[in-house]
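In this section we walk through a basic example: taking a raw amino acid sequence and producing a predicted 3D structure, encoded as discrete structure tokens. The instruction is simple. Fold the sequence below.
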Amino acid sequence: MAQCAPTNADFVKNDVKRLYRDLLPYVKITLVEAGPALLGPFDKALQDYAHGLFQKRDIDVRLGTAVIGVEDYTEEGFINPARRAVFSDGSPPLPFGSMVWSAGLAPRTFTETLNDQIERHPRTKRILVDEYLRVKGHEGSIWAIGDAAVNEKGVALPQLAQVARQQGIYLSKVLNGTQREDEKPFEFFSLGSMAAMGEWKGVYDGSSIGPLKDPNDKNLKQQTGGDSRKPPKLTGLMALLLWRFAYWGRQTSIVNKILIPMYWFKAWLFGRDISRY
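The resulting token sequence is shown next.
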């Protein structure tokens, strides 16, 4: 949601102002985050940078609370009931016209309905796999990757596209016969985290670059204790360009690689394409 709010702010500033100027006084963007900070996985300096950007853009940021419900209400002069959000911390309800609700990740219905022949995590219901991505009890015949799977003994992997992509490449080698199924365990190599912040700005946190390690590994702490190198962190235009180049580079279709920059240029030159009635 930390990327959705500034995108909507760009839309209001650049497009609503141009097309529906009379509606501007009625537009207010509020971002509600249940955690203690924006961009939870990012470095604190980048979290503070993003928070500062939102404040400058008049985005109301509410931390440490969550929307627990939506209720109808009426006031004098209303023709129809309106709606407002109810917060977990007991703060006054917030009237709204449109709500974008990101409620987190949940297992696919397919994994929830599997019978007892497939072992699943007791809490998340994700399929249990070993270090070779093989389903427990069905080694050599069934594999599971992405958000549907979890290695019970290993370090929990983030539920990100780059994890699933690397798992897919690993598994393709096994299924194509270029690598034995137990030749080497899967190891996730993190490329860092990035986000677009609107107004041609972004953030990139490279503190997690490299193989994902167990934070409780004492040997790891001893090995990295004397390393004075600082992980790369980027903000502003450079971070946004890196974000765009990364996602453009992951496109598998030549057509998309041609069209996406054209759409970016068209939106920059003429504004967003929206419906007008």
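Looking at the output, two observations stand out. The radius of gyration is 23 Å. The chain has seven helices and twelve strands. In the next section we compare this with other chains.
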